Structures are given as structure tokens and as C-alpha cells.
Amino acid sequence: MTSAKLPFVKMHGLGNDYVYIDGFSVAVPSDPPALARRISDRHRGVGGDGLILVEPSDVAAARMRMFNADGSESEMCGNGVRCVSHLVVSRGYAPAGPVRIETGRGVLDLVVDPTGRRSSRVRVDMGEPILSPARIPVDLPGERVVESPCSALSRAEAWWEAAGFDPRMTGVSMGNPHVVFWCRDVAAVPLGEFGPRIETDRLFPARVNVHVVEVLDRERVRMRTWERGSGITQACGTGASAVCVAGVLCGRTGERIRAELPGGELELEWAGQGPVFMTGPAEEVFEGVWYED
Fold this sequence. Notes:
By secondary structure, the protein is of the alpha+beta class. The chain contains five helices and 16 strands.
């Protein structure tokens, strides 16, 4: 029996790292969920927050498909789409500057500015946030979920006071579902316990990405993320976009912010209507070959 060789590129946006398969040059795997689980393993695989396929598209420069580390397919990844646009430009599939990428959220417009042979700075039009509970989805009535009570948090917990935790939630979809909680100190939140409990609560029929956010001033926040299907990650681009929207809706931040994530900073803009804009880096780490028996 011979092993199939599958070339890949390891890339990250602020430490939110994925294994990328260039579908322009190789055949994409027949079972991406199974491959995502194996290749994302940080001890027995390449290691990463998931697997992203970069494929030809009839409507854009490329199509992105994203699979979390647990094999579940997600609609969108902000850090991932920046890296996809970098790959498309660096491999010569599209020129630098404006680039369009097809995602589960739809076709997004990006601007790619190469900063080196293996890095770019990318501005992304993330599209308009989705605020209807039915479309996020959150199992609540009404037109929006803005600082609303969270039934998953029925009573105060021991760490709330130390974290200055506000148990009210704000729901936003950026093509994938997010819930935002505010606190005084993100480091004091036991995210490894809190995150998965909220992610899988019945309030969220499609599960949810969970963010805890500390407002430093009107133009700067610090945040930590539990990503649906991947766990605690270094950064989440759609999550930072959702936090920008939540900050404006809740009156806690201005329309332009810098989000401090464990992996670095992202710039976000939302004018209270229309699309969210996100700007941040995309970096290649290494190339390799994965052997499939």
C-alpha cells in the first residue's frame, strides 16, 4: 500500500492557525472533516485550530471552506480569510490589491497589501452583522439580543466578582454565531470551563463562539475567545468584528476600535449600520507534506 502525499501550507492570523490546502495545485481531500480532526491534532498531526481548503471559484478569486479542529464545518473565519487572500496573491492566482473571496458567508471584498514574501496586511469587508435572534441563531424572541439575560447563567458564580463579570449577553452573527459578555478583567474568567458550557447551551441551536471582553477605553478593548469546535484560540477575526458591533450597540465603545487578542491586535470599524471592516496580518509559517495511508 502506498501513501498519498498532500502538500499543505501552515499559516496564521495573530496566532489563529490553520492548515491550508491549495486546491489550485492539488486535488482537495475527499473527507475534509476526518482530515481536519487528524491534521489539527497538536501532538499527532501538524497542529492547528482547523483545516482550510482554498479552491477555484466561478464568482471570486478563490473559494474558502473552513473546518474546525473537531471536524465541524464553519461558515466563516476572519483570520482565515485574510490568510486565504494572502495565499491567492502570493501564489500568483490574483494580483495584490482588491481581491474577492467566496465564503460560506458569501463573497467578501478584501484589499491585500504584501509586507514580505510570506506575509501581508489585509483589510476585509466582513459584511453587515446579522442581529435577528432567529438568524444568529439564539433561541429568544424579539428583534435583537443586546445585554439580555442569559438563561445559561441562572445564578452568580464564585469568579464573577473577581472578573467584574456582567452576565448579560449580546448576540451577533458575522455569518457565524457569536455571543459577547463584558467584564472588568478577562484574565479572571475561567474560559476553559465557561466557554464550552455556553457554546453548547440549548439557547444556541447551532452552538456559538463565546467572547469575554474588557473595555480599556472607547477605542480599545481586550478580549478572549472560546471558538465553537476549536476551544480557546489566540484570535478570532469574526469574533473581534462581533465585539466591535456589540460595543456600538451597547454604547460601550466607539465606532473604531483596536481589539487586543492573545495573539495580537486587530483594527475594527462599524458605523452602526452597513458592513464591518477588519484589518490585520496574515503570515505563512511553513510548507509541508501530509501522508495519507
